[in-house]
Each structure stands twice: as C-alpha cells, then as structure tokens.
Amino acid sequence: MHRKNNALYIDLENIPSGLDLKMLFEELTLKHNESPEEENIFVIKMACGNSASIKKLEKQLAEYNFTIRDTPSITTNYKNRADLIISLEALETIIINTPVIDRYVFITSDSDFTVIMEALRKYGKEVYLVTKESVSDKPIFNNCCDEILIIESFMPKPKTEEPKEAEKGKVKKAEKPDAAHTKKMDLLVEDLMKKVVESFDPDAWQLVSYAGVKFHQMDKSRMIERSSYRSLGNLLSKLEQERFIERKLNEKGHPEIRKASVSVSP
C-alpha cells in the first residue's frame, strides 16, 4: 500500500458554514488516487478564522482533530491574517520536510492563497483547491492548482416538502435557473472537448484516455460532473453523433478518437 500524505487547510471565514467535513474527507480519501494501492493519510489538518467563524464548524473540527487558530481582526475593516498564517504553515512544511507532504488541500474562496499554491507546485507538490462554484472558473485559481473541488458538493441538500398546489407555479420558476445552469455546463464542456480534439493531428488517432487527460487539464473544476453528460463517455458519444469525432478500437482493444473529416452541426 502506497501512502500519500495530505495537508488540509481551512480558511474558515471564506467558506459556507454548511460545509460537511465528513463528505469532504470521504471524497478525498476514496477518490483522486493514482492507483488502488494508494492510501490517503491526513497528517496535517489546520483551520484558521475568527471566533465567530470557528464556532460555526467547531464541533466538526474537533471530531476530526483539527488544529484551530483564532485569527481576530486586526483592522477596522475586519481584515485578519488567516491567509498569511496558513501560507506560512504550508511553506514551513517544505523547509522542515518531516513528514513529507505529497498533496496540499486548501479550502477557501480567497485568491490570496494562490501565491502559496503556486509556490508549492514549484516544489513539485500536488495542490487541490476546494472553493465556491461561483469562483471556481477564475483563471487565477485554474492556473495554480491540480484539481478544483466545489464546496457546494459537500453540503447536505436541504429537505424539501411537497409543494402545495398554489405554490407549484412558483416552484417551476425556481427550477429554471438550474436547467439554464446545466445547459451552460453542457456548452462549456462541449467547447473544451472540441478544443482538445482540434489540438491533435487531424490524421492521427489518439487514445481516449489521453484525450481524457488533456480534457481534465482544462476542466479542473470538473464541470462535466455538473453537466447533463456526467461522464467523458457520454460527452464523446454526443460528439460522435454530431460527426465531430470518429471512434474505433485499436489492435489492443483500446478506444481511440480523431476529428471527423467532415463535422456536422447538430
């Protein structure tokens, strides 16, 4: 069993109070491994914020044995030093190098953390960001980490009661933004995959797995999981139906794709 040491840092004042740490730890523990033999160990768990923000997650932080740092405001506009404290703590692990940290996970929506994230990657470290969906597509975030997870994915969905007859019309109106959001995700992932395919030699077949790696490098916030496609296979099937790509199995039985000689708009 190969052990991968993780360091996890939470900027408490820049995340929603509804974050479910159990869901997040399950995601990081069970997924994102290079092989089935890889084991994720969380050797550093630290959370920074003022007393009010600590209170919101205090019980969960205690259950997961986090080191908690109270960072009271030092200016009249409520600025504290959580970003600086976390950044220095992360940098110190590089200097001490005991234990060796393989992956750093930052839970924040504050772009100030991109400085330390970029520095850690220069040392060959894997860097994850868990942030709000509304800022997940910021270029500054996408360019300084290896993976972006969406905070809203780790928040329990509120229980909803069956709407009354008089309220059903209102519910339908509330659903429309979700449909529009999904459609937006569909268009974004379609455009990304088309760019990936167009970057290849038009006369050469490419392994689907290689295309998937290239696609993931551009889709760090995993928009495909929030689209109606849900998976790369479904997306490729759509592009094949549109005759944008061709697919085949090579002599080893591995799927390959290339851009169709003539593509047809849907």
UniProtKB/TrEMBL annotation:
Coiled coil: none annotated. Residues 7-150 form the NYN domain. InterPro entries: NYN. One of its GO terms (molecular function) is RNA nuclease activity. It comes from the Bacteria. It holds the Pfam family NYN. This is NYN domain-containing protein. It comes from Sphaerochaeta globosa (strain ATCC BAA-1886 / DSM 22777 / Buddy) (Spirochaeta sp. (strain Buddy)).
